[in-house]
Design brief:
- The structure is a single chain.
- The chain has 129 residues and is α/β, with parallel strands linked by helices.
- The chain contains 5 helices and 6 strands.
- It has helices at residues 9-21, 32-41, 59-69, 85-93, 106-118, and strands at residues 2-5, 26-29, 46-50, 74-79, 98-101, 127-128.
- Strand 1 (2-5), helix 1 (9-21) and strand 2 form a beta-alpha-beta unit.
Length: 129
């Protein structure tokens, strides 16, 4: 199962379609309360969270909660631009698996995420795509 949290409905539905084509059952949320409710109702192996849901940076704590609740899950955070030092600091502090630029299309993002998940010996440290 995959959790997708993004405030943009177009991006959300694009990622949902791309993940469904890869065999994932998706739960989608557009805001923090809905995402928290989904976390209490399902077990997720993959979470894709936008770093900006309602306000800038409010997706980072949510991604951290996902990591704490599902420590073996692949947690990806989408950032609006080129990651900087503060982005990497937030990723490390919240236990994020990977950081991706959301300027890519939803299908490109899902393709990169699924490729990273399928690597035999996935490095659990945060890296940039």
């Amino acid at each position: 199962m995959a959790l997708i949290v993004h405030s943009d409905l177009t991006a959300l539905s694009g990622m949902q379609s791309a993940l469904a084509a890869q065999g994932y059952v998706c739960v989608v949320a557009r805001d923090l309360p809905t995402a928290l409710m989904a976390i209490t109702q399902h077990y997720f192996e993959l979470a894709i969270v936008s770093s900006r849901l309602g306000e800038g940076g409010d997706g980072w704590p949510l991604a951290g909660v996902v990591h704490l609740v599902f420590p073996r899950a692949f947690v990806a955070v989408l950032t609006p631009g080129e990651p900087d030092v503060l982005t990497f600091q937030a990723a490390i502090n919240n236990g994020i698996t990977q950081v991706y630029q959301q300027s890519n299309t939803p299908s490109e993002l899902v393709k990169a995420i699924v490729a990273d998940i399928s690597r035999p010996q996935r490095n659990t440290s945060t890296t940039l795509q």
